[in-house]
Design goal:
5 helices, eight-stranded antiparallel beta sheet, 24% strand, 8 strands, alpha+beta, globular, 248 residues, Immunoglobulin-like
Length: 248
């Protein structure tokens, strides 16, 4: 599975990139990154699918299940087997020639179906009904938008939520390209003189971090996302990509 610089990246490769994978040899990975940096269509598809993956990972057994609209199943049926009815989708059918314009939407719809199916399976195994109320979602204490810094396309949102184990900082970022290093989340004071490392973002550019004990949001209201080199140096790289200031 390799990039096709003359056209676009293979859909399977875009799907793996959206899940945080970097398949291929170092040379193939470098070629893929060059293509993503120059092809708006492929980079947009990768970001759309990455957003689907991030939202799917946020779903828990406590979330309410909502049946997918008919048009979602119609889109899957039209892409997988144009002559088959939605009820027959469980049967294996050869894929028709792909149309890139609809591939992302169909893949996203499939993810929605998988997430709903997984939730229903859990409820059935635990003896709960889909209508049974689950525990209340964590209360949002503060929220802010991550804004890109000069030269960066990274953006997203930050939420501080109250949990039984204490406050947590939930970060969701888009526009981060695959890199040799990793992305780190920090808390800064308003002057930027003091900082506390929260942790590294996972492959989906999303993370949930415990607020360190003794650290108050009022003293460290700035959330910073930086690009770090895998050189063993735990200090800030001074290469910040996005920031948000939480209301206090």
């Amino acid at each position: 599975m390799s990039p096709r610089d003359d056209l676009h990246l293979d859909p399977e490769l875009i799907g793996l990139l959206a899940l945080g994978e970097n398949p291929g040899t170092p040379e193939q990975i470098a070629t893929t990154r060059r293509h993503l940096s120059s092809c708006g269509q492929c980079s947009n598809e990768a970001e759309q699918l990455a957003a689907v993956a991030r939202h799917a990972r946020q779903i828990t057994p406590a979330d309410s299940l909502v049946a997918a609209p008919d048009h979602v199943w119609d889109a899957i049926a039209a892409q997988v087997a144009p002559s088959a009815a939605p009820a027959a989708l469980a049967e294996v059918a050869p894929l028709p020639p792909r149309r890139r314009a609809s591939w992302v939407a169909t893949a996203a719809a499939a993810c929605v179906g998988l997430v709903v199916g997984a939730g229903a399976t859990h409820l059935a195994a635990s003896g709960q009904s889909a209508a049974a109320p689950g525990p209340a979602a964590p209360a949002v204490v503060a929220a802010a938008s991550l804004a890109p810094l000069p030269g960066s396309r990274a953006q997203g949102n930050v939420r501080v939520v109250s949990t039984a184990g204490g406050p947590r900082v939930v970060v969701d970022v888009t526009g981060l390209a695959p890199v040799d290093g990793y992305y780190e989340v920090w808390l800064l004071d308003r002057k930027g003189d003091k900082l506390v490392a929260l942790g590294a973002l996972d492959g989906s550019a999303m993370g949930s971090f415990a607020m360190p004990r003794g650290i108050a949001m009022a003293d460290y209201p700035v959330v910073d996302v930086s690009l770090q080199s895998p050189n063993g140096d735990p200090s800030h790289s001074h290469h910040s990509l996005a920031r948000a200031t939480l209301p206090t």
